[in-house]
Specification:
Blueprint lengths: L18 H15 L2 H15 L12 H15 L4 H16 L2 E5 L5 H10 L3 E5 L4 H8 L3 E2 L3 H7 L5 E4 L6 H8 L8 E4 L5 H12 L4 E8 L4 H4 L2 E5 L2 H6 L1 H7 L23 E5 L3 H28 L29 H8 L8 H12 L15 H12 L4 H13 L4 H15 L10
Parallel strand pairs: 1-2, 1-4, 2-3, 4-5, 5-6, 7-8
Antiparallel strand pairs: 6-7
């Protein structure tokens, strides 16, 4: 009898059973059956199958199938009644089918998502256009793939492949993957795709019996430790099949106190992930999430700018026809320390938040934020949120203003400002003042 996970000495075995996979299986058996004898028996049966000596003489295609069959045999041996047996077999089947995931795209979030999954016992196979992130994750225990074909070959069917690539690259990624996939495989788009594209993709892939799940993922570079908030769209059954993956990526219920009144409401939202609806729903909710993010960030930035300029009364004011006079400079003689202001707001204030925490940290490091030029990108979600609001007839002045402020930060308003200067000069002879003079 075996005392624990062990590797076969037979070099001709049909499928390699990795140490991590054996360990995960042992934990699952312990959870399901709770006895040392069950664990020993399951491991012996697994190794019988591994060396192609399954009692029925059947070929076992991979370790997942082996563990499922060993679990069924355990249920039978321990005389578990049919309902309880079915529950336990399904529980392990779900576990065994979702301990493995392929990840395409190892940028700021993709690589750390792999790390978080591996810490929780999942086997991950990774691919990236540039090889360096692959090498780093392989050193940490991931399986590395040199191509999409290699990645697909290393995953057991039905495959779960998670894409963390830019929205503009998803369609080409799908086109490259499709010839390599089989019916029943699952493709997960965890980036920031337009939800309308999700609806189209899900329909197209369904014609080939391939499942598509859209996952709006929030957590950024902090997700490895904090976990990832996930807003999910797609078929209920497919999402339930992926539940172990979502559960391990999510922050968990301990990340925030339960909202009063939700004691009788039981959904995965309390864990930090949620099926929001059919295809496109996940990215629709994430789209609005990011639109709100734009507005909240702009409010903090504008408020802090007002505080920073509250000492304007102490500065010499220009007196000319092109400058609005400051009528009461004595009202603006405050030199606020923005580091302390942000810090005090973090403690008991109604506007405290994680975004404020990050802002306070940045100001503490450099109160003038000299490493930043102030050119703010937008990746599409803010625009799509406003488009949806227009279609729905919902006014969103704050979200719209915050998006336009990002445009202006990149110089997109330069020409219209020149037009304004041209008109002022044409009708009144007004000359522009230099930035230095102002």
């Amino acid at each position: 009898m075996s005392d624990g996970p062990r590797a076969s000495n037979n070099v001709n075995y049909l499928f390699p059973l990795a140490e991590k996979e054996l360990t995960a299986f042992v934990h699952a058996v312990d959870e399901l059956f709770g006895t040392e004898q069950a664990r020993r028996s399951a491991l012996d049966w697994i190794h019988e199958m591994e060396v192609m000596n399954w009692p029925d003489g059947e070929a076992i295609p991979n370790w997942r199938e082996a563990t499922v069959r060993a679990s069924a045999r355990l249920c039978s041996s321990y005389s578990i009644n049919s309902r309880k047996r079915a529950t336990k077999i399904d529980g392990w089947r779900e576990h065994s089918m979702n301990t493995e995931v392929g990840m395409i795209g190892l940028g700021r979030m993709g690589a750390n998502m792999v790390r978080r999954l591996m810490r929780k016992g999942h086997r991950c196979v990774v691919f990236n256009r540039s090889p360096q992130p692959i090498h780093e994750l392989v050193r940490e225990g991931a399986g590395g793939a040199g191509s999409l074909s290699d990645l697909v070959k290393q995953l057991s069917r039905p495959r779960a492949i998670w894409m963390m690539v830019p929205a503009a690259a998803v369609d080409q990624q799908l086109a490259d993957l499709l010839p390599l996939l089989d019916a029943g495989d699952i493709l997960i788009d965890g980036g920031n795709s337009y939800y309308i594209d999700d609806i189209r993709r899900a329909k197209d892939l369904a014609l080939r019996s391939i499942h598509y799940v859209d996952v709006g993922t929030s957590g950024g570079v902090w997700g490895l430790e904090r976990g990832y908030c996930m807003m999910i769209g797609g078929e209920t059954e497919t999402i339930e099949q992926l539940d172990p993956i979502f559960a391990r990526l999510a922050p968990g219920s301990a990340s925030a106190s339960r909202t009063p009144g939700r004691e009788s409401i039981h959904t995965t939202a309390d864990q930090g992930y949620l099926r929001c609806g059919p295809s496109g729903a996940g990215h629709f909710v994430k789209m609005v999430h990011n639109g709100i993010e734009y507005g909240v960030m702009a409010a903090y930035a504008e408020g802090l700018a007002v505080l920073r300029s509250a000492n304007v009364g102490l500065k010499q004011s220009l007196a000319d026809a092109e400058t609005t006079p400051l009528r009461n400079p004595e009202y603006y003689e405050y030199d606020f320390d923005l580091r302390d202001i942000a810090e005090v707001w973090r403690r008991g204030s109604v506007i405290s938040s994680w975004l404020l925490d990050l802002t306070a940290a940045a100001l503490t490091k450099d109160s003038d934020l000299t490493q930043f030029a102030g050119r703010i990108s937008d990746s599409g979600e803010g625009r799509w949120t406003i488009q949806a609001a227009v279609d729905e007839g919902v006014p969103v002045p704050v979200l719209s203003s915050s998006l336009y402020a990002r445009f202006a930060s990149r110089g997109e308003s330069d020409f219209q400002n020149k037009v304004l200067s041209a008109m002022r000069y044409a009708f009144g002879g007004h000359l522009e003042k230099s930035a230095i003079a102002q």
